[in-house]
Specification:
Distance between the termini: 25 Å
Low-confidence stretches: 7-13
Radius of gyration: 27 Å
Strand order of the largest sheet: 1-2-3-4
Number of helices: 5
Largest sheet: 4 strands, mixed
Order of helices and strands: EEHEHHHEH
Mean pLDDT: 80
Shape: elongated
Length: about 210
């Protein structure tokens, strides 16, 4: 299969600074079926993407950052006779990443609901420990003085986990949702000659 992708950058830099990633696809009579799941009996433009091709797409955009632009450059050989397959292939790719984005959004909502619920429960437990127990035993009671420090430590421990997850664990969800949205709406450039394809590659190497 003829797949490749290029990363446009002027020097080695962190992935958040990569300005553009171009995903090159080649469509001809020999390669077109390799993009799709061979076990899917649906019509070609309705099939699922093949696992190997999905892995390729995931690898191609693995270093994409928040501001990275993503596009497709599709090379149609055989004198452009396969150009009619570009639209079905791109629609299938967009549909795949639309599904991935929807699943990730649902997962993110569950993540927020679970951790907000845990946080509210933790606050209720802390309020009980810090408010009700001292009122029951009294500030001069030996049990109160014995466990007051332990209650303070327990309060921080029980609150820390949901707070930590809500502060530090949400960013990967938003990163993947943004990435899926970029691929879903990526620009498509059709290349119909070897000379034009070489020009694109030379442009990339000159930029590097």
């Amino acid at each position: 299969m003829h797949w490749c992708f290029s990363v446009s950058k002027n020097h080695v830099m962190p992935k958040s600074c990569i300005p553009k990633i171009s995903i090159y696809l080649r469509i001809d009579s020999n390669s077109i079926n390799n993009y799709f799941n061979p076990h899917d009996p649906a019509r070609l433009d309705k099939r699922q993407l093949g696992q190997e091709f999905k892995n390729y797409l995931d690898t191609a955009v693995a270093n994409a950052g928040r501001h990275t632009k993503i596009d497709f450059k599709v090379f149609c050989c055989e004198s452009g006779s396969m150009r009619f397959m570009v639209d079905p292939l791109i629609k299938t790719i967009r549909r795949h990443f639309q599904i991935q984005k929807t699943l990730k959004e649902v997962e993110f909502k569950k993540f927020k609901k679970k951790n907000y619920t845990l946080l509210l429960f933790s606050i209720a437990v802390v309020m009980f420990c810090q408010g009700v127990l001292p009122a029951v035993f009294g500030t001069d009671h030996r049990i109160h003085s014995m466990f007051s420090n332990a209650i303070d430590v327990f309060s921080w421990v029980i609150l820390w986990k949901p707070i930590e997850r809500l502060i530090f664990y949400w960013n990967p969800f938003l990163k993947e949702i943004l990435l899926y949205n970029k691929i879903q709406n990526a620009e498509v450039k059709i290349v119909e000659s070897e000379e034009e394809l070489i020009d694109y590659h030379m442009e990339h190497f000159d930029a590097a």
